[in-house]
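Quick one: structure for this chain?
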Amino acid sequence: MWFFDALMSGFRSSTDPGRLQLLRIVYGTVLAGRFALSFGQGGWTRFAPGALSLRLAKQRFGPRRGRLLAVVYRPALIFRTAAAVALAAGLVPRLSLLLVVAGAAMELLYLKSPSAVRFTLLTGACLMAAGDLGHGLRIEHHPSIANTWAQALVVLVTTDLYWNSAVQKCRSRQFRTGLFLAQWMHAYTQLKDRLTYRHQHAIPGFVDRHTGNLSARDIRLWRLVAVTVIVAEFALPVVLLIPQTTPYAITAGIGMHAAFTCLKPRQLLTFSGLTVGTYVAFIG
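Got it. Here's what it folds into:
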């Protein structure tokens, strides 16, 4: 496997630079979508005069820094979206990547659960370590050591993401037993018609109709789902690295993340899009 060859050679073995060039395009595209969506559902009016978000920012950072954040917030939304489009298109990729990462880091100042932002920043940092990000939409395929170190970093970051998530789920008895998923689905079926934004979930109707109760059957079903997810998160990084099983792992990973994204499409767009995008780095 190329990954272990890279480790043994001190990351001096050749890999295909086109893998991270493709990841750069995916990264820019996903972030452009995320940044564009941030204009909606109150995102553009965040930190407006009199808004609760502005008051919280002043309490957290002080009046002066809170006002400064409010001043730069809207221009930053515009600039980072343009930078993400430029990154996907391969226009001045390193400068565009730097601006995109800075724009994503801004969300750490006001999001309550910025785990997706942290993964975004780590993936962006890995791309910054690449020696050949390419230009435009052209992807070059020739042996090179320019991206070996960066590609290995992407593999490590994605593996840590999956294994850490699996460990956390294993430690949660409520998740392992399926009770958490059963309770979440039951609450969703009861409250879906009262949600402020009706399209923030994309759960198929037959799922909430047949699994939206808290019966013993439903809990057993969700227990099976929970165990399957834990096993998949442990196994995916390994089987992605094995050439013979890579296509099957990619298919399984896409299916798993598609199911995740149905729960919260807007919130999980970045996580699912970037995680699936990093699969290209597992291919030598």
